[in-house]
Design brief:
The complex is a heterodimer of chains A (515) and B (435).
Chain A lengths: L6 H17 L6 E7 L2 H17 L4 E5 L6 H9 L4 E5 L13 H11 L4 H4 L3 E7 H10 L1 H5 L3 E5 L27 H17 L3 H17 L3 H22 L2 H21 L2 H16 L10 H14 L8 H9 L3 H20 L4 H17 L11 H38 L2 H20 L2 H12 L4 H8 L3 H22 L7 H16 L1
Parallel strand pairs in A: 1-4, 1-5, 2-3, 3-4
Helix pairs in contact in A: 1-2, 8-9, 9-10, 9-11, 10-11, 11-12, 11-13, 12-13, 13-15, 14-15, 15-16, 15-17, 16-17, 17-18, 18-21, 18-22, 19-21, 20-21
Chain B lengths: L9 H7 L27 H15 L3 E5 L6 H13 L3 E7 H4 L7 H18 L6 H14 L3 H11 L8 H15 L5 H10 L3 H19 L5 E7 L7 H7 L4 H5 L4 E6 L2 H4 L6 H4 L1 E4 L17 H12 L4 H4 L3 H12 L3 H15 L6 H16 L6 H11 L6 H8 L3 E4 L4 E4 L1 H4 L2 H5 L1
Parallel strand pairs in B: 1-4, 1-5, 2-3, 3-4
Antiparallel strand pairs in B: 6-7
Helix pairs in contact in B: 1-18, 2-3, 5-8, 5-10, 6-8, 15-17, 17-18, 17-19, 18-19
Classes of the chains: A mainly alpha (515), B alpha/beta (435).
């Protein structure tokens, strides 16, 4: 059998085919699809194809889809004076997990209009979509895909640009309880430290040391935190080894991971790495099924991944997966550590922070459970991983929507005990209308409103998250609220909501969904 | 008729396989391969003709045609209609994808769209309807279905377009505006629906009055209407079809015209509530019988290969396009699984990979691997074991996984004694072997 050509060689062939599609004689109208692994590569191919085709007097332009406009109309408007249209901006369909966003609707609409396209357009059109968005496009626009004259596939990826050194994040467990004075926490920490010094029972000593370490960390006394967490880890490990107790081994691993996170905050990355590695090792000794990944293991691997950055090991991810599936825990750890950070970034953009780790865990577990294998073309491991991750997120939201139905009933029940029938119905109607209105506004508006009113992020935190000034965030929020209210008004003749009423209604909706 | 000319080179073959260049039965590039296939495995046109020839003797025929997307249902119906035209059938085709709101349509929407299509067809062919009937229908559309502001708006939009004497053209334009409003999610639609839905029996009675009037007008031509609801099977929200069509089959069957409704196989084999076969007489458009039940997976029946050859040979000089005609035809027949659109897509993609050289079997296999991704990307992990099971038992069941596999043609419906198998494009996937 011939050796598989390299990805680069295949891309070169695909480029030639793309150019031939653009410049071939014959009917002017025709549709094609180009899929790609890396947006930057796609951009380069488009630019080069545009230049090369112009040598053959073929005029090409690139059109970004505007979800607020029918795609066919946009193409008709853009086509004047051109022979080839490159259509971009479809990738966000992959992020519309609820499939209710304007872009999803626009793509569905284009699918229904398929048969009218040859009458509307006299150009060749290439739709460009990422591999992530391709699956969604197949689902949303099957009729459109049926009439693609040809398909191009660009699998080349640029070297990943090194991510800027991430500022160490403060883990949630280190956050002090709101409303509790630092002096009170310090007093409690000292008290636990004293117990850890004086107690005779080893387990009591370890428990007290762990509590002291966590409390010192929460008030930024990191040296003392590191000292007590190390004591706790050592104590738990001794007991676990002596008694063969898996729970104590888990406690030791958690103390080590906490210690690693404290060391990372102190800037002692080597020490942090060693501690995190030891934590992972201990979890491996805890009698777990080899081909599995626990939440705690994931957290420790997450710490390692953050510390290491993405370090290629020379091992193909598919090979690591196969070894992991065969029971090689070390390969599994490597695979998780290599993919943890990007997967976390993916999930963080899509789900509330509290649920992110469980979604990551579920993704890795599915990767194992479904016995994934490298496809014949050795497509990117990450493409497969994203595809699983996406399904995990979709199911998560479906569950949440199911909960919503239940909670709207609960709201109904609760309201009936405290409010008049009229108020109760009004509240339920309003909740439903707001939900519908949220689905009508652009994704970015919905996202900022959800973060503000549901995740309850204050303005400065939103500003930090988006990398914008407070004034800009305030302006974005104002626009998003206006759009939401417009959408709300388009659904009902009820009086509009003022700012306070909107905030109250969104908070109420949040309670019905998340409680 | 298409403007296509039989391809003599690989480059030309790319164009004669353009999916938008529809080859209708009247086109020189059309290949009637049905006579080559065993009637018990693929006798679609004859079966349709039998229904209508019998139906015209005994009453109105209300038929469901089921088949996967891309198996040529529309073409086969067009072929049957062309044959039956001589026997007095006048087809009125409605593209359900374009005429109905895919986000949500109702039975009454379908009835109004049907009325509008019949009026439009009569107007196009300059067939005079009784003046009193036109006034009644106009009154129904304008006064009873609409509120005043909408009526004024539509009247304003079409004012001056037609002379006062051309009442049918005016009604056609008016009804077109009303049915267009059914695709906009606004108050006008809500009003129309609430008024049309008030009494379904009255709605059917009014449609029948129109159909009777149309048939009265067609009496001198000895013609009767056959309304075809095309592309219903392409509506992805199956619940819409279940609610508006299958659960309203009594009402559809009481229409006084011939009726053909196109369904997907899942509407019959994995229905949501009402099975298509319980609701209507069924004609199945299977995939080509490339294998009979019990044949090994790589086997290719010579009759099906000849059908594929005839289909492609009508469009291109095979010797100029395929490197080894016999081997390439075997590969194309095997890998398409008898699915006609997949056959054309495979060939076109193979052309794209091969040109300017001739297509080799390796080009076909490479094209097949690409085409497979359109299907595998839709497979959920739980679908693979089920697909493997269907491949073993050759049966599908009424369960969600099967519905999903049928809807996306991951498993194919073969006729004869009806049986199912996984699409050959998926057969080489390791996930199927592991299941």
């Amino acid at each position: 059998m011939d050796a598989e050509p390299s990805v680069e060689a295949r891309d070169a062939e695909e480029f030639d085919r793309l150019l031939r599609f653009m410049t071939r004689p014959g009917r002017r109208f025709g549709l094609a699809l180009a899929t790609y692994a890396d947006e930057r590569v796609a951009q380069e191919r488009r630019d080069l194809a545009t230049t090369r085709a112009s040598d053959a007097s073929v005029r090409t332009t690139t059109v970004a889809v505007d979800p607020s406009q029918r795609i066919a109309n946009r193409l008709v408007a853009a086509a004047d004076g051109f022979d080839v249209l490159f259509v971009i901006g479809l990738d966000d369909i992959a992020r519309d997990v609820a499939e209710t966003g304007p872009l999803t609707r626009a793509v569905g609409d284009l699918n229904f209009q398929r048969d009218t396209l040859p009458d509307l357009l006299d150009v060749r059109i290439v739709f460009w979509v990422s591999l992530d968005a391709y699956a969604q496009l197949v689902r949303l626009a099957p009729d459109l895909l049926d009439v693609m004259l040809t398909r191009f596939e660009f699998l080349t990826e640029h070297e990943r640009l090194p991510d800027p050194e991430p500022a160490p994040e403060r883990p949630a467990w280190m956050t002090a309880s709101p409303g509790v004075a630092v002096s009170v926490l310090a007093e409690q920490a000292e008290s636990f430290a004293a117990s850890a010094r004086n107690a005779e029972n080893e387990l009591t000593k370890a428990d007290a040391a762990a509590s002291a370490g966590q409390l010192f960390a929460s008030i930024d006394r990191l040296d003392e935190a590191a000292q007590w967490l190390a004591e706790a880890a050592a104590g738990y490990e001794r007991l676990a080894t002596r008694d063969g107790d898996a729970q104590l081994m888990l406690a030791a691993a958690i103390a080590l991971r906490h210690d690693a996170e404290v060391e990372a905050l102190r800037g002692n990355n080597d020490a942090a790495r060693r501690l995190a590695e030891r934590s992972v090792e201990l979890l491996g000794e805890g009698g777990q099924v080899p081909a599995s990944v626990s939440l705690e293991q994931l957290r420790s691997l997450g710490v390692l991944a953050t510390l290491r950055g993405e370090q290629p090991t020379g091992q193909d991810d598919w090979q690591l997966l196969e070894r992991w599936q065969a029971g090689d825990r070390h390969a599994g750890n490597q695979l998780v550590a290599r993919n943890y950070s990007p997967l976390r970034a993916y999930m963080t953009r899509r789900a509330p922070e509290d649920d992110v780790e469980e979604l990551i865990q579920e993704t890795f577990l599915r990767l194992l459970a479904h016995r994934m294998r490298a496809p014949e073309n050795r497509a990117r491991f990450r493409t497969t991983l994203w595809s699983i991750a996406r399904n995990v997120v979709v199911e998560y939201y479906r569950r949440r929507h199911a909960n919503l139905d239940q909670h709207v009933s609960d709201l109904d029940e609760l309201s009936s005990q405290t409010e008049s029938e009229e108020d109760r119905l009004a509240a339920i109607t309003e909740a439903n209308l707001l939900l519908q209105a949220l689905e009508l506004i652009p994704d970015r508006d919905r996202e900022i409103l959800e973060l503000r009113y549901w995740a309850q992020l204050p303005g400065p935190e939103l500003a930090a998250r988006y990398g914008l000034t407070l004034a800009t965030i305030a302006s974005r929020l104002r626009v998003a609220k206006q759009r939401l209210l417009q959408a709300y008004q388009s659904l009902t003749a009820r009086p509009t909501l003022d700012d306070a009423a909107l905030a109250q209604s969104l908070a109420r909706l949040r309670a019905s969904i998340f409680t | 008729m298409s403007s296509l000319v039989r391809a003599t080179t690989v480059e030309e073959a790319f164009h004669v396989l353009d999916p938008f260049a529809l080859v209708r039965p009247s086109d020189p590039l059309y290949a009637d391969f049905e006579p080559l296939l065993p009637a018990e495995h693929y006798g679609v046109t004859n079966e349709l003709e039998r229904h209508f020839r019998g139906g015209q003797r005994h009453g109105w025929e209300h038929i469901g045609v089921i088949g996967h997307r891309g198996t040529g249902k529309t073409t086969l119906i067009a072929k049957a209609m062309a044959k039956l035209r001589g026997s007095g059938l006048m087809p009125v085709t409605i593209n359900a994808q374009l005429a109905l709101d895919q986000g949500g349509f109702t039975f009454s929407d379908m009835m109004l769209v049907l009325a509008r299509a019949v009026i439009g067809c009569l107007d196009e062919q300059h067939i005079e309807l009784d003046g009193q009937l036109i006034e009644q229908v106009q009154h129904w559309f304008a006064e009873e279905l609409l509120e005043e502001s909408h009526r004024t708006q539509i009247s304003g939009a079409i004012a001056g377009t037609f002379g006062a004497e051309n009442k049918l053209a005016l009604l056609a334009a008016f009804s077109a505006k009303v049915t267009a409003a059914l695709q906009s999610d606004n108050d006008y639609r809500r009003v129309i629906r609430s008024r049309a839905d008030r009494d379904p029996r009255d709605l059917v009675r009014r449609i029948n009055a129109l159909l009777d009037g149309a048939h009265q007008a067609l009496r001198t031509r000895q013609q009767s209407l056959c309304v075809v609801f095309d592309n219903l099977e392409k509506i992805t929200d199956r619940k819409l079809v279940d609610d508006a069509v299958l659960r309203k089959s009594d009402e559809f069957r009481s229409l006084r015209c011939h009726l053909i409704l196109l369904f997907g196989p899942a509407d019959h084999y994995a229905p949501l509530t009402v099975q298509a076969g319980q609701a209507f007489s069924l004609v199945t458009v299977p995939v080509l019988p490339v294998r009979f039940r019990g044949d090994p997976p790589t086997f290719v029946r010579p009759q099906a290969k000849r059908a594929v050859e005839k289909l492609l040979d009508a469009r291109m000089m095979l010797g100029n396009v395929l490197e080894d005609v016999d081997v390439c035809l075997t590969e194309l027949t095997r890998l398409c699984g008898g699915h006609v659109r997949d056959l054309l897509t495979l060939t076109r993609w193979a052309v794209g990979l091969a040109e300017p050289n001739k297509i080799t079997p390796e080009h076909i296999r490479k094209a097949a691997r690409r085409l497979a991704s359109d299907r595998t990307v839709l497979m959920h992990p739980q679908d693979w074991p089920r697909a493997a099971e269907i491949s073993r038992t050759n049966l599908v069941e009424n369960r969600p996984e099967d519905s999903h596999l049928i809807l996306h043609s991951c498993v194919l419906n073969y006729n004869g004694e009806p049986w199912w198998d996984v699409h050959p494009l998926l057969r080489d996937d390791p996930r199927l072997h592991e299941s």
